[in-house]
Amino acid sequence: MSTWIPGEVPPADEMTVAWWDATREHRLTVQACTACGHRQHPPRAVCTGCGDTAHLVQQAVSGAGTVNTYTVVHRPPRKDVETPYVVARVRLAEGPVLLTRLRSPDSGGEPTIGDPVTVGWVDLPDGRALPVFQPEEIR
Amino acid sequence: MTTGVAIVGAAESDLGSTGRSILGLQTQAVTRALADAGLTLADVDGIATTGVGRFSATQLADHLGVVPTWTDSTFAGGSAFEMFVARATQAIRDGQCSTVVISFASNQRSARSRRLGGVFEPWVPEAQFEEPYDPLYPASYYAMAAQAYLHRYGGTREQLAEVAVAAREWALLNPAAFRHEAGSITAADVLDAPMVSSPLTVADCCLVTDGGGAVVLTSLERARDLRRTPVEVLGYGERTTNTSFTTVDDLAVPGAAGAGADAFARAGITVADVDVLEVYDSFTITAALSIEGLGFCGPGEVLDFIADGRIRPGGALPLNTNGGGLSYCHPGQYGVLLLVEAVRQLRGECGARQVPGAEIAVAHGTGGILSTHATVVLGASR
Question: A52: burial class by Cβ within 10 Å (0-12, 13-18, 19+)?
């Protein structure tokens, strides 16, 4: 995945700017509702747990998670994407699920559902960064 | 239980690789379905369609020279047409319109308009949080659902391939099927096909073809005076679960369950009453999850359930009797063709692939990335 150059990522909006700003410092956050404790991703203008609109904050998370499910993509959806690569759903220790890419373990081979993974970062040209995940041993 | 509304006409447009335009194919489907019903465009006061443009029903109405009293262009991918049956039934019962045409057509094979990555407007959350990782849309979602399901229940890719193997057997009986002349396939053929998004190969994925279809609905009372045996709308149900890859908590749990339960309850039937099942098979896993979600077997059981050949011709649960999206035709939003085949089976018009004495058929559409799920129960009215 070292050669992966992400395509253009749309700009943040007022709901997502805090999440993206944290990525500039390689800090992973999820949105939390301080009214009911619900955590969600991506950031929204409403808490899907309780409907509150006034108590939503971005909270730092540990960056640890597990592989919820994954797929190895063999056909590129756009030009200049090297295949194969692994797209996965990672469930963060704090609850929310992210879509992401998985870096392959040093041993090569496919991940397994349930594998522990930790966050890493791929920098974007505009200073933001995309969180990706990797098996714990290649941390 | 009847809703008092019936399907009185059904037809396909040209299928395969047509070199025709979307509206040209739409017009074929609509006029053929009306002719099948013994009606004309002058009878139409309701139009439901999608896939034409941003104003799909408006554009089709304009193109056909119709000024409808009711339209619907709900965009719900391949399940839209099962939703349209529900909406049209309600509109006819309410008196807002009397004769509805539900249609779809696409020239995606001729126009080479299919994109592996899908299409995201830049302002939707998926464009910021999902598309940057280059998932195939929708293939990678179904692939991840398959991966989760096989992992959870210990099933195999070979077992899942039965959906594609059975679809081909049906296509061999349907002269209109894209793969009619292509011969049987085995599970090994499916597994050995080029990988797209693991564990799904090309052979686990539906075709990319042109094609379309239309059905005509009116009141059952009026239907009894028309030329075809009416096919009654007995029940319907739907669920909309997600647009994101990450919303649904457990991808091994089919979203079809709620839609099916509502439709069966409204119709007053159980799975034991279903003679023919037409489910959207965008991928092998889509059909498998739908069979399970609709309640034909228990959680985690579908791969064992279909292993005995029951979804093949002559089996106990005739599934996708035209050959399905996998081997017959897949113009993108395939759901309208589920309805066309269900109607033809209930009217006994299906020749070599006819299910003898079919009286109850279920059409179940799935849209997006297991996003929308809509079920229609239809009954022969003899």
Answer: middle
